[in-house]
Structures are given as C-alpha cells and as structure tokens.
Known about the structure:
CATH superfamily: NagB/RpiA/CoA transferase-like
CATH class: Alpha Beta
Number of helices: 6
Strand order of the largest sheet: 1-12-7-4-2-3
Structural class: alpha/beta
Distance between the termini: 67 Å
CATH topology: Rossmann fold
Helix content: 25-40%
Amino acid sequence: MSSAKEEIFARLRAAVEEHPGRGAGEVPRSYRGAGGVGAADVDLEVLVERLEDYQATVRRTDAAGLAATIAAALAERGVRRLLVPAGLPPAWLSEVPATAGVEFVADSADLGPRDLDTADGVITSCAVAIVATGTIVLDAGPGQGRRALSLVPDYHLCVVTEDQVVDAVPAAVARLDPTTPQTWISGPSATSDIELNRVEGVHGPRTLEVIVVVGSGT
C-alpha cells in the first residue's frame, strides 16, 4: 500500500475513533410503498407546474372539450401529417376540420424511421403520469404505440386523463406491467453533455405538448 493511501486510511480511522457514535448503524428499511394516496389527494396543478418546468407546453380541458383542444393544438403547430397509434379513440380527432388538410397516418410495421421522421408529429395517450417528478409513462398500450412512434417525430402531443395521474413513482410502478416496453418522459428530449449547453431534440421530440383532461368520460 502506498504511503498516500496509508495516510488517508489513518485519518479515517482517527475520525471514526473520535466520533464512535457516528458509525453506519442500522439502515432504515421503512420505504414508502405505493398505497396511501387516493385520486382526490393528487394535485394536478403541481403536475402542470412540473411539466412546464421541463419546458413542455400544457393545455387543460375537460372531457367534452378534448377534441376541440386537440384540434387547436394541431392547428397552432401547423401539423399536416400526424401519426396515429392503434387504439387511439377516433373521437379525439373528430374536431379537426377536413379543410385543415391534416393527414392522419395510422401506424403500421411498414412505417420505418424515415417515415416517422418526415411526419409533423404524433398524438398518443399515456399509461400513467407522476406528479412528484412531472413524468409521463408510455407502455405501448392502446393509443400509445411502439416506442419509436413517440421518439422519432419532432413533436409529441400527449393526452393525460385525471384518472391516470398518481402522486409518486411507487404508485406509478404499481400500475405498470414490468414485461412491457416503457418510455418515461420528463419534458422534451434534451441533453447538456457537451460543455453543459442544453440541446433539445437529440434523443426524442424537440417539442412535448400535454393536454391534461380533468374529469372522466374520455
């Protein structure tokens, strides 16, 4: 052992001997579980705040206004070619006027990465949304599609209903099937790997827009 290491260990031993009551001791194992928080306790305003902190655009509506809100979001974005995963409720797109010239492209195995990249965006539902972290989770369920569908296009419009919102990660994990492919989204894709400069759209959509639907009936 080198003299430098010997000196470091000697200092550590001396520090421990000087404060014998500050050892590792018993590690607490009373971790928080998934239960204990009901839907009435989930704060949607905090979810919206966290999503906006991550530079996502958030719209709020009720079930009756969802289709109109989706149509407005697509119009403001200027979407002309929209990817639609299997299982997405057709009523969600019913307010998009035929005169808007929007082409709804149903996802299929024939659509490769280039096809996904040339689309103006994608619309999906979600599996669960987490208030504490501002995270949206997709698990390839109805209306969500394969992972590439929400990672390749530059614009992702995601609909989150109130009954899909939970308070924290344990509650989210309890709702998810660990055997399904999952995508955990906390804001638009971004990285600061190069000289700490934030660059968006490197590993996924540059723009994330979320519609939070209050109430049921969607």
